[in-house]
């Protein structure tokens, strides 16, 4: 490859990314970039500009407001059926290892160009027969245009699918109106004393004021957010034994969400873009001028690549870092020998816990049907302790490994005993063993969609401080943060999507390994033509745990 052609390629890849999302070529391992010709496509759009050849020159008017040019017009929301898709890379000459680039020009129902960004798109390429699937990186240029990058990790024909998940207006409503509102969820407080039981309503509050409430502050865990209960009829505030959760309240906040449900349904969203050539042939032959970049090791605080990876069959090939299979139990046991391994989170973290025990060679045979069940006994030199599946420990006596699972506090369960659902910060603060051989996974998202953004961010920030304090005591502690994925409702899709961003922002620079499973999960669904759900198949969970072990066992 000539120096000139290489410079052109770098310029193209760099210019297609704006804002704070750079193209990190050095973290795209074994990715091959071939020089392609970028087609110049000239289309006449409605705009305040003058067409001159292949360029649009925007006129700068210096005169006063000319109302005589006024006209009757209509501006609608973004329509997937009207939006234009343009291939910027050569769709007739695509090779395995190439970056495939598309441009979206958003239009409304009237076919009119949109000049505001903020829509949420999801882009995938897949071949269901070969079980290949990869998600594209969608870059919002905040002017109605979006750039989509795919990695051609497979040779053969693929389907290109681009979906308008949510329109800007739905996101703005959730971001500015719905999420800042408190009292969107509540618990029933269960108070017990001397054989007597009384119930009352409990909730969280950060803003405003209150009067005559049972207060349960925990600044180290919740910051300025306070857990409150209305006083029970006769028992004291100090008799709170447990809480029982209801996801959403039945007051005006629920009505506020119901009145906006049309924004989360067809014909508004989600809608797949039609009307463009969505079949692409990726060729396997090697072209001249291929550049190969190596993927980094699975270290902490990694930069985010253009594309996170792809599924081929039942394997996830990460482009974030060099993940690998961990098929030999003795190798895993050797890595974790003399260590205390903690899983702190929700039921999706519980899936990780069960899968880890399986990978480490303990005969529990975790499946999609039994992972929820508490492991009572394990044949061999193992000890199982803990009261239930929400708080348990398995000890490998031969290798001196402790595997502990703690469900986080203030969860959305039918009954939550206060004593068995500790705050994550309390678990971290209690880690004071002299050897300091800790390996920790933390994941808090699935039970937090009714928290305000401020309260959720504050809770994560308190955990980040706890990590700093733990590192002060135990500098070599290995910590991973597991990101979020969508549940099965469009109403909270963007909320979980934004939680992923918040987690990245809060824990960036704290020496943790962030495991972003958002694209990994959607790519799995595309490759295997499955369905997104809160508890994904254990075959997928195994690959997520492989990512974790690829970091935890680096040394």
Automatic annotation (TrEMBL):
Q: Which residues form the NXPE C-terminal domain?
A: 316-553
Transmembrane stretches, start-end: none
InterPro entries referenced in this protein's UniProt entry, alphabetically: Ig-like_fold (IPR013783), Ig_E-set (IPR014756), NXPE4_C (IPR057106), NXPH/NXPE (IPR026845)
Cited Pfam families: Neurexophilin, NXPE4_C
**SUPFAM superfamilies of this UniProt entry?**
E set domains, SGNH hydrolase
Similarity section = Belongs to the NXPE family.
Q: What is this protein called?
A: NXPE family member 2-like
Organism expressing this protein natively: Saccoglossus kowalevskii
